[in-house]
Amino acid sequence: MKAVDIPTARDRATEKLISRGLERRPAGIVADVLLHADQRGVSSHGLMRLEHYLKRIEHGGLNVRPDINIEMTSGSSFVCDGDDGLGHYIVHEAVEYAIDKVKDQGIVMGLIKNSSHCGALSYYVKEIAEHGYIGLMFSQTDTIAVPFKGTAPYFGSNPIAFGFPKGEGEYPTIIDIATTEVALGKVLHAQGSGAQIPYGWGTNVNGEETNNPDDIKYLKHFGGPKGYALAFAIDVLTGILGNESYGTNIPPMYEELHKYRNLSQSIILINPKMFGDNLMFESMLKQMEAELKDIPTTDGSFVKIPGEIEMEKALESDEVIINEDTYQILFEEEER
């Protein structure tokens, strides 16, 4: 494993993407989203994904110069057509647009289509919350998880995220979870390491649970029917809502690299001022979190607020830890 300071990692990732045809601003946004995940300790969605994006660009499965089009469909709703670019940039542009609208509208919902993998959803809801708004986000992913009691995969890990503002200068409360026991990236991160993973993360090709990450073929939804039901709802609120791809119709992420992914995401922004005093909202949220921390625990520590572990990691370090392969990709000299 290698430690790289954040400015250097950002610059190297940005330059790699520029070398594949992206303009500097979109490349910088993609690099920021990846580093955000690494800083929070979610390396499965961090710089280790850069190699895949570079390969998909080379195979023609990502549009490096997308013509992103955003169209309002009502006073509080819009559709963003990402033109098959990198999802990080597409979603960022949609979020920026929505932030500008929600101040007066109170609630704004945006549907994003013709997108691709957009990294950690926490990045986007954090940005929303830092502007003083509540953020919700859903994303479909390609088929990887078996439905409850099923033997073949249908939905993806279909993550959902929330961001809650706590006042100027305070780190928002961020919740970002997959509807599977873990995200696929966490399994990929463990593969080849020789380490075992917990039973329940996924199954082998025969549908049997295994603790060997190299044998994992499919993931399992968390909570049995509960995670499966949420994954169902997220595909409805993204792909089906926009009359786009869903379920097994979504091109796989690590196969068919020449194909556009046609992924969809949804974002919802809420202005707390429209429902009460926003300062009271922030105060009550912090009071609730303080009350939770007063609850005794079985191990003598204290109750963690959702997202607190990731927040602490993000605030404590000015560098990221990446594996040797990712380091080589960042620092190898271009031969073209």
What would you say this structure looks like, in words?
- Helix 1 packs across helix 2.
- Helices cover 37% and strands 18% of the residues.
- It has one domain: Ribosomal Protein S8, Chain: A, domain 1 (2-Layer Sandwich), CATH 3.30.1370.
- A hairpin with a 2-residue loop joins strand 2 and strand 3.
- 46% of the residues are buried.
- With 336 residues, the chain is an alpha+beta fold.
- The radius of gyration is 20 Å and the shape is globular.
- It has a seven-stranded mixed beta sheet with strand order 2-3-4-11-5-7-8, with helices on both faces. Strands 6-10-9 form a three-stranded mixed beta sheet, with no helix packed on it.
- The mean pLDDT is 94.
- This is Ureidoglycolate dehydrogenase (NAD+).
- It comes from Salinicoccus kekensis.
Spatial extent as radius of gyration: 20 Å
Our measurement of the CA-to-CA distance between the termini, rounded to an integer number of angstroms, reads: 27 Å
Q: What is the level-2 CATH architecture name?
A: 2-Layer Sandwich
Q: Uncertain regions: pLDDT < 50 for 5+ in a row?
A: none
Q: SSE string, helix = H, strand = E?
A: EHHHEEHEHEEEEHEEHEHHEH
- DSSP E strands, number: 12
The helix content is: 25-40%
Structural domain tally: 1
CATH hierarchy, class: Alpha Beta
Summarize this structure as a short list of keywords or feature phrases.
single chain; alpha+beta; three-stranded mixed beta sheet; 18% strand; globular
Brief digest:
This protein is an alpha+beta fold and about 325 residues long. The protein is built from 10 helices and 12 strands. Helix 1 (about 5-20) packs across helix 2 (about 25-40) and helix 2 (about 25-40) packs across helix 4 (about 85-105).
